[in-house]
């Protein structure tokens, strides 16, 4: 997920944004190993649903695996939108400024029916049934941090990236229950993994660690460094942190989805989607396919459900100036 900065300058990437270009040359012969539902499939990007409001500027997206409902957060206002399964228009689920939140970044729905929302300085947890905030965790030095994306591991532990500090915070199920019992006060987030020294050094306040996902077995995390272009693996058993080796840069990598040995990745700075194949122990990757599509309008995050990718069209380049195309929409991508 991305944050406010001179977005127009980010468009100076070395890939053309005119129309849609499939970069099959980067994939080598990997496409031959695609699953049947991907091999030779035609890339199509339509619209899944619309968002209300003139300044939605969406950032994060999550899907409730039990109900099929989608949740999308506004980076400009902090509002959260919900689209019931099968519907084409989102509704306001949590209004602008709810519980003092004016920005929403990462979103995730856990197995207990709670919605997790990050803003730059903290994490809020909501009971979906009541729309009430049940927990709130904050960072120790708000001026130095930029919380970004999060994921929930199979054991219920949440992992949150801090893009400025290059660390991953952890909220355990026990910590969450303690916060709920205390009326929602969760205290300060604790650092689980510090990737300073693992990722390339960057100037202060550079967006580094971004999208993050746990594998289905709960053995490791995958996260991407937006500035450095690297993919990283964190072993949840040993604590080992390492770069996932590959032959191409994943610069501008933002939200990602990990499933069955593949990673789907949105690149906010060049309107690109990547599909990567991990090796058996997730220590290296090959690029199966990349697509550049200007109609994705600065994609920040994505989720995958029933072989469809739902991609956030953020239009962040128009947040500080210019006219956004209304309504804001979430793309429905097939054949990728």
From TrEMBL:
Protein name (database record): SMP-30/Gluconolactonase/LRE-like region domain-containing protein
Keywords: Signal
Signal peptide: 1-32
Superkingdom field: Bacteria
Keyword Signal: yes
Pfam families: SGL (PF08450)
Ranges of residues in domain SMP-30/Gluconolactonase/LRE-like region: 57-277
InterPro entries registered for this protein in UniProt: SGL (IPR013658), SMP-30/CGR1_Lactonase (IPR051262), WD40/YVTN_repeat-like_dom_sf (IPR015943)
């Amino acid at each position: 997920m991305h944050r406010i900065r001179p977005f127009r300058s980010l468009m100076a990437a070395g890939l053309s944004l005119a129309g849609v270009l499939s970069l099959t040359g980067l994939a080598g012969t990997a496409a031959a190993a695609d699953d049947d539902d991907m091999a030779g499939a035609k890339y199509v990007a339509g619209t899944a649903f619309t968002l209300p409001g003139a300044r939605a500027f969406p950032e994060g997206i999550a899907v409730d695996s039990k109900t099929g409902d989608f949740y999308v957060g506004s980076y400009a206002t902090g509002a959260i939108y919900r689209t019931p399964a099968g519907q084409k228009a989102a509704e306001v689920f949590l209004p602008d400024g709810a519980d003092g939140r004016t920005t929403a970044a990462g979103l995730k729905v856990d197995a207990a029916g709670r919605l997790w929302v990050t803003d730059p300085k903290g994490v809020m947890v909501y009971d979906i049934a009541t729309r009430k905030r049940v927990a709130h965790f904050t960072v120790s030095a708000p001026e130095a941090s930029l919380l970004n994306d999060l994921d929930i591991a199979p054991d219920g532990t949440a992992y949150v990236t801090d893009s400025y500090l290059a660390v991953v915070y952890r909220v355990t199920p026990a910590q969450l229950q303690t916060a709920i019992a205390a009326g929602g006060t969760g205290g300060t987030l604790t650092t689980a993994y510090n990737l300073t020294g693992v990722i390339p050094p960057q100037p202060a306040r550079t967006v580094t660690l971004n999208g993050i996902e746990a594998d289905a077995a709960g053995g490791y995390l995958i996260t991407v460094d937006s500035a450095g272009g690297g993919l990283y693996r964190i072993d949840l058993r040993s604590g080992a942190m390492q770069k996932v080796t590959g032959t191409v840069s994943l610069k501008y990598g933002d939200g990602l989805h990990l499933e069955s040995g593949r990673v789907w990745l949105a690149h906010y700075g060049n309107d690109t989607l990547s599909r990567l194949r991990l090796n058996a122990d997730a220590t290296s990757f090959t690029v199966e396919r990349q697509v550049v599509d200007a109609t994705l309008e600065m994609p920040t995050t994505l989720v995958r459900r029933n072989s469809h990718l739902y991609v956030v069209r953020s239009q962040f380049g128009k947040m500080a100036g210019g006219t956004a195309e209304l309504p804001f929409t979430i793309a429905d991508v097939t054949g990728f």
